[in-house]
């Protein structure tokens, strides 16, 4: 999928505004007595499915939001630099995949919220897109990200109480799917070698 690259300064401004928006939403949530948390994903409830699209905007307090802020900005920025279309597709796929698995696998009566599903989607997208594109720059970036943030991948496994490994796993799967869908045709096709004819005298 072709996608026009975004200028670094523009990408930084977009991600800074999106991150600021998450903090504004949390301010409003705190002022409302956490009333906005009702727009998180209500596991196993059909009425809770639409909240797949609002849950990533919400967080369970300042610590939760603070822990997500740096990877949200960094991974989102790196994906956005590859083009708006790819950023939109990878984000939507990660949101839906993360939300569906969280809704399906989380025990009933639980509300799931936070941007970590999208973060895991961006993370795996950045890690595996080079598998299909075979572009040296993307492969090198994936290696650096793996060295710096590879430990986050353990978050797809059941672990600490109150942490939605289901959303993490769903987001990670979504990132891989998005990378495959967006980059599987990026591999350049070599033209056939020209035939050489020799003249005999």
Automatic annotation (TrEMBL):
Keywords: Membrane, Transmembrane, Transmembrane helix. InterPro entries: Peptidase_S54_rhomboid_dom (IPR022764), Rhomboid-like_sf (IPR035952). Its main location: membrane. It is found in: Membrane. PANTHER family: RHOMBOID-RELATED PROTEIN. Residues 51-184 form the Peptidase S54 rhomboid domain. This is Rhomboid family protein. It comes from the Bacteria. GO terms for cellular component: membrane. It comes from Microlunatus sagamiharensis. Pfam families: Rhomboid.
């Amino acid at each position: 999928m072709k996608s026009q690259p975004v200028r670094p300064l523009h990408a930084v401004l977009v991600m800074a505004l999106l991150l600021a928006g998450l903090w504004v939403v949390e301010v409003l949530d705190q002022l409302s007595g956490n009333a906005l948390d009702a727009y998180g994903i209500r596991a196993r409830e059909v009425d809770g499915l639409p909240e797949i699209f609002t849950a990533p905007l919400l967080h369970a307090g300042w610590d939760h939001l603070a822990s997500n802020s740096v990877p949200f900005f960094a991974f989102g920025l790196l994906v956005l630099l590859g083009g708006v279309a790819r950023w939109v597709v990878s984000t939507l796929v990660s949101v839906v995949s993360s939300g569906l698995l969280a809704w399906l696998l989380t025990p009933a009566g639980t509300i799931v919220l936070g941007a970590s599903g999208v973060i895991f989607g961006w993370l795996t997208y950045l890690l595996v897109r080079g598998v299909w594109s075979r572009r040296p720059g993307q492969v090198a970036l994936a290696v650096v990200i793996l060295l710096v943030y590879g430990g986050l991948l353990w978050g797809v496994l059941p672990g600490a109480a109150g942490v939605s490994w289901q959303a993490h796993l769903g987001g990670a799967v979504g990132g891989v799917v998005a990378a495959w869908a967006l980059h599987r045709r990026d591999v350049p096709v070599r033209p056939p070698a020209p035939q050489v004819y020799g003249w005999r005298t």
